[in-house]
Specification:
With about 220 residues, the protein is mainly α. It is about 75% helix and about 0% strand. α2 packs across α7 (about 120-125), α6 (about 100-115) crosses α7 and α6 (about 100-115) runs antiparallel to α10.
Amino acid sequence: MLAWGAATREHEAVNAAETTARRVRMDPDERRDQILRVAARLFGDRPYSEVSISDIAAEAGIARGLLHHYFGSKRELYLEVVRASSREPLGGDTAAVLGTEQAWATAVDRFLQAIDHHPERWLAAVNVGGPESDDEVAAILDETREILADHTLAAIGLDDRADDPVVRAFIRAWGGFVQELTIEWVGRARIDRDRVRRTMLATLPLLVERILPLLDEHDA
């Protein structure tokens, strides 16, 4: 009986908290961003199939109808999470002179800072726990990798070779390594941020200096 009473009080407390959250008024942009944050966290914690619209609405403290108003369906919300999550760490142009060691360090720091700020969003994007063989998700992530390749080429001073398919393949392959490295950092906690940073700073310049010339020799 005491246990039942405690459970009832706990249930009532949860309902009261959700009711209070629903009463918090936000402007449309704030509410949309809040829903995205909640959805990113849930999609990052669980497979896509195990997250429902009701789960997201309850966690955000809103009615399901309001969530549908902003995003339509669970799939549309997931796609927006992937889009926003994968673009966020790309950042803007570096303040340093492009192609210098400082530019590369600035780009890496900005990239890692964005991931550190919203790790659940990044994991939701790179882990891709969405619908199997979803072409739209694949297209979003592929476009993001192309943008990241452009930013990387500019930061290391190879933007004049951005149209070279061999160079782009080389940079994208290295990007796949970085993606897995970040999962080991914020997803599995097997490596810390400083080691990720040092690895990124050291590996790409080394590969560009040692490996890329070998690829160029093959084309000569």
